[in-house]
Amino acid sequence: MLTEFVNVRQHDNEPSRRWFQSADEDLIVWFGTDGVIVGFQLCYDRSHSERALTWREGEGYSHMRVDDGEAIGKTRKSTPVLLPDGAFDPRAMLERFTAISGDLPADVVEFVRRAIEDYPTDSIG
Asked: For the stretch 84-104, what's the b/e string if a residue is b when 16 or more beta carbons lie within 10 angstroms of its beta carbon?
């Protein structure tokens, strides 16, 4: 189940955020000054091949692969970066999110669930 981190560091010039984590997922939710959700990023498959589904108001969706910066042969880890990855199955993600979202605030669950359901099907693959 996703549980919330407390005292999440906020960044200047970015909407306030709440951060939730489970064994294999992270969910970051950004809120406008009025408390309305203006974006989220759901990272999943951290233990295998991490991916990130992101939605931001005014920008829409992206689905990216996370390069964790741990390339073989390097002596130091690089900063993780997001790389294009179009393969996304909204139905599978909706099932997965439903299974891990039981302890989240209802408004966050409803928003993320609706966003997954509304993911453009022509973007799959």
From this structure: eeeebebeebeebbeebbeeb
Q: Quick check: helix, strand or coil at residue 72? A: coil
Side-chain half-sphere CA neighbours of 94 within 13 A: 12
Look-up of token digits 């970066």: 81
The pTM of the full predicted model, rounded to 2 decimals, is: 0.84
- Phi, psi of 26, rounded to the nearest 5 degrees: -130, 140
Domain range list for the chain: 3-120
Q: What is the pLDDT of residues 21-61, one digit of tens each?
A: 999 999 999 999 999 999 999 999 988 889 999 999 999 99
Query: Would you state the torsion angle of the CA atoms of residues 19, 21, 25, 30, taken in this order, to the nearest 10 degrees?
Result: -10
Write out pLDDT tens, residues 6-16: 889 999 989 99
Question: Are 49 and 68 within 8 A, CB to CB?
Answer: no
